[in-house]
Amino acid sequence: MNTIADRLIEDVGLRRGVDRLTPEKIQKVFKELVAGECGARMKTYMETCVRCGMCAKACHYYMSHKDPSYTPVAKVSQTMWRLFDADGKVDPKVIYECAQVAYTECNLCRRCIHYCPLGIDTGYIISVVRRLCHKLGVTPQYIQDTAHSHSATLNQMWVKDDEWPDTLQWQEEEAREEFPGLRIPLDVEGADFMYSVIAPEPKFRTQLIYQAAAIFNAAGVSWTMPSTPGWDNSNMAMFTGDSEIMARIERAHYETAQRLRVKRIVMGECGHAFRAVYDVGNRWLGWKWHPVPVVHSVDFFWQLIQEGRIKLTHKYADPVTIHDPCNIIRGRGLMEKLREVTHFLCENVVEMTPNREHNYCCCAGGGVINCGPPFKNVRIVGNSIKAEQLKATGVHTLVAPCHNCHGGLEDIISKFGLNMHTKFLGDLIYELMEKPEAE
Fold this sequence. Notes:
Helix content: 40-55%
Number of helices: 21
Strand order of the largest sheet: 2-1-3-4
Number of strands: 7
Strand content: 5-15%
Largest sheet: 4 strands, parallel
Order of helices and strands: HHHHHHHHHEHHEHHEHEHEHHHHEHEH
Low-confidence stretches: none
Distance between the termini: 69 Å
Radius of gyration: 22 Å
């Protein structure tokens, strides 16, 4: 069997980090981490896994390569078990290998939980490996830069404080040419919800802000957006293992919503951001539940449809298929609401096989796409099984309500020559909905 040592990729962030390590420092940090943050959960997983390999077919990397070293159990064997067996005292080159496995060969998609007869959460174990690597200063260069942006600006794209409201004003002006009465309301206290987006929207996908404003305007809802930092709901620090910055981001997000006294937070179409706000940040901050209720846009669009607030002029005619984002399907259970919304919008929905909680990951999530060009080809080739799944549907339109999924799926579509294009739910709703007539 091959091992991670047979396919190491040079990354300046990983190399710079391991060059500063000694076996003694590694052991000290490892033992502190295990004693201080892991507890019974890690001990239980380490002692109960029987290495049966039934998790193999759960992993898109294994299904694409058919190489046993890519199986979830092999990833744990090459990382956490290896560290436990050595009581944490390993050569720095081992940390380089652990980091490459943890950051670039596991998307934390948690599909393997559904295949493990003992319910072992490999995603959790690999997250702890990332946490160790972060504490040792060993993270891939590109994703570390994103974490630095979060630390300095509270958003992942180095968007300056004045650039954010300027972008919203620009999008409002654009939208008012089509909808004269439309506003993107800023800092409105007591609105029904605060709408939050990820930083790539003002940076690269401003049309999504425009479309969301048009949908909310047509639906007649009470909403607002913040003008200050705390608007970005993405959180790559969660995936680098930097829990301290991750928690700062989520605290700012919640406190912004509390300052505005909104009833809830509605998040745009992003899976990892939802995971950070809904499932991880609140726990790290010590909150039993959320200080402000959190709703993903799939759930919110479903509610608008149920209330009759979205009316269509026609349905999307071409056949579509649905991609199930890991963090809102396996992580939140929105698979049926996603289908109800898609069927409401589209005449012909062709399901992938497998689907729902068994759908394959896009291979971009878990921060893997943010690890950048050194690992891009490995990531794309490592998901040829997804390309096969897409091709088998025979359709040309792919509905994917998640930013990272769009990035990963578009890479796969390009690499394998699939004649497909991706759409957000917001794209479809804006295209198909009845639009208020100009006054």
